[in-house]
Amino acid sequence: MPSRPEDHPRPTLLADFILGSQDGIVNVLGILLGLVAATSDTRIILIAALAALAAESISMGAVAYTSTLARRHLYVSEVQRELAEMREVPELEREEVRVILRQWGYEGPEVEEMLARIEKKPKAMLDIMMAFELNLNEIAPEQARDTGLVVLGSTVVGSIIPVLPFFFLGHTLFTAAYISILLSGAMLFGIGWYEARQNLGSRWEGAGRMILIGLGAGFAGFLVGHFIGGS
Which of 5, 160, 216, 229 is packed most tightly, with the most Cβ within 10 A? Predict the structure, then answer.
């Protein structure tokens, strides 16, 4: 039986999930620890954390959407420009393809032979120019929407993790903060581990880097709350 192709997560989907979830954890954890150091009012802490969750999630989702949409518009405009050049200055476009082919190791008659084959397939020629001359990847029409939703959802999920202990242990703030740090660290470890697993990197290094970034931001928030809010 022929082997079935492996299912791989879309690289952009993985990057969007990591961006949103890490940002949610890091920002909300830093705010929470800063507030714990500055006040003992659980209500204020929860209101501020939930406000940060809402604002951060909407902001991250909107930025992801608009930035991806801008890249889509750039890609479409460059496609139109390349198509126009293929019609109006075909010899210039042929020479650009020759340069790419020589970079790939083709020489002499091989270059002209490959060029002739590529010219017979205008879409292949266009794709080569977009990817290897302009270094632009295709952005599908629905990608801006999908990216915005994934970043929005993963930011919400990431932001909820550090807040959870404060709903159940609000009367013992430092216990809630301690558990929040543990939960956030575990989540960051998992995100870093999964990212490294998908990208063939060092899993321990990826997980450790995530933890250092997240807990470092949390500690910075604690210091601000301690020295400014608690004074």
Answer: 160
- The Cα–Cα gap between 93 and 105 comes to 19
* 130 and 54 Cβ atoms separated by less than 8 Å: no
Using an 8 Å Cβ cutoff, are 40 and 230 in contact? Answer: no
What type of residue is 38?
A
DSSP structure class, residue 108: T
Both tokens of residue 177? Answer: 């903060």
Q: Give the pLDDT of residue 199.
A: 66
Q: Distance between CA 204 and CA 108 in Å, rounded? A: 48
Q: Assess contact for 53 and 28: CB atoms under 8 A.
A: yes
Contact indicator for 100, 132 with CB cutoff of 8 Å: yes
Task: Tell me the DSSP string of 25-49.
Answer: HHHHHHHHHHHHHH---HHHHHHHH
What is the C-alpha to C-alpha distance for residues 19 and 137, in angstroms, rounded to an integer? 20
- Length, in residues, of the chain: 231
Best CA proximity match to 16, nearest among 206, 162, 143, 160: 143
Which segments in the chain show pLDDT lower than 70?
1-11, 170, 198-203, 206, 226, 229-231
Answer for the pair 152, 15: CB distance below 8 angstroms, yes or no.
no
Show me where the domains of the chain are located.
11-62+142-229, 74-133
